[in-house]
Amino acid sequence: MSRSEDLFAAEKRPITFSELLNQAQQYLSTNYPKLLADKNSNQKKEKMLSYLRKFISDKSYAVRGIDSESLPLRLYQEMAEYSFLTPYFYNSKKNNIEGIEINAWDDITVKYAGGLQEKSAQHFQSPQQAKDIFNRLLRNSGYPPMDDAKPIARGHLGSNIRITVDSGGGTLDNDVGLCASIRFINPNGLTKRDLVSNGTLTEEMMDLLCGIYRYGRSMLLAGETDAGKTTLMSVIMSEAVPYGKKLITIEYGDREFNLVVSKDGKILNNVIHLRTKDSEDIKLVVTPQMLLEFSMTMNPDFLCMAEIRGAEAFETIEAALTGHPVIGTVHVDCCEDIPDRLVQLASIKCSNLSDTTLYRMVTKAFPILFYEQKMEDSKRRVTDICECFIQNDKLVFNPLWVYATKYNEERDGKTIIHGQFKKSGTISAGLQRRLRRKGMPETMLKKITGGDGT
Description:
Elements lengths: L2 H9 L1 E2 L2 H15 L1 H5 L6 H16 L1 E2 L8 H10 L5 H10 L1 E8 L2 E6 L4 E3 L7 H14 L11 E6 L3 E6 L12 E6 L7 H6 L5 H12 L4 E5 L5 H12 L5 E6 L10 E2 L2 E2 L2 E6 L12 H9 L5 E4 L6 H10 L4 E5 L7 H12 L5 H11 L2 E7 L5 E12 L2 E18 L2 E10 L5 H9 L4 H8 L5
Parallel strand pairs: 1-2, 9-15, 9-16, 10-13, 10-14, 14-15
Antiparallel strand pairs: 3-4, 3-8, 4-5, 6-7, 7-8, 11-12, 16-17, 17-18, 18-19
Helix pairs in contact: 4-5, 9-10, 9-16, 11-12, 12-13, 12-14, 13-14
């Protein structure tokens, strides 16, 4: 035994963290039950930390691997906050964290910006504690807790943390406890410059997308889950929408966009964030269609339908056809599949219209389509931008930009992708005329067409 270990054993009473947590909970529940039950007191944390410090000191307890100053806070996080997850929620930006994947109560993976991911050395104390912590998260965020009858829950913590959790209830093995996914939406407040420097797209590609949206044309983005679509749309809207114009966003259930800009307590832009509402009482349900109809009466200059996945597709098409620039996402595998998917969804509402009519409506409403992908090297890239239109009764895709992969290699167990962004075309003369009519300066038009402002 080393000298430091001799001193540790002589001066302190060694105890495991789990044993200390049990004793501390019993101590506080016996001596300060009202404090534990208090949900609103501003002094709760300060008082609990003070009592925990005294308890640890009186017992001369020490947990190997945790210094004496950090120990009371760790206990407080377990008892009143969110266990080892607490620092992640408050410091995701500082720690460059994109998400946390929980496969079981003792199997946690932390994902960082840039593609790095690693197994966490920390985990919950037990399957039951994992469930208790997540129910605390849900309750504190205004959601009903999970139980065996309703083990699956989705929620939003604040404005940029999304959680999806399954607490079992017969859907998981009992020894797993729960599984969950925690996503930090644009944790670092990424900007146009960041996306360009990270290799998501080039400055010319971003100028094209922002310029077209700014001057009245609508666009749809497709991509897999975790491709970075929300972040990319946020940056486009932030760059393209002038402060004097009104932007309305519509999201399913949880809010991910946070586009209101303020300075010195004064709001500088005009943004309204709306979200749908579910309810067991059908009279209380608020659908995307209802929000879109509401938005159209609010004199919007720009619209965002964050995700088009149902009958609201038809209303979204109609909104874009009225001249309101609309940006949104759909879940398909490539740009060429976007019109097919939108026609399929629009048919839910308007089955009396022919596919030919719907395809014409879709291409007029959304002439610009683009696709974002999280590639095998964990980097997010806009792999395709194209213009879509009907010509001679046929659907035509005019490629504007592509990410061309030269070759892939595996090095030290990691995939290395060698490729580059290539400009493969320019927007049509018809789209250029529409952009001019909406006020796009000729210098900007020449910039996004490469000087070919035909």
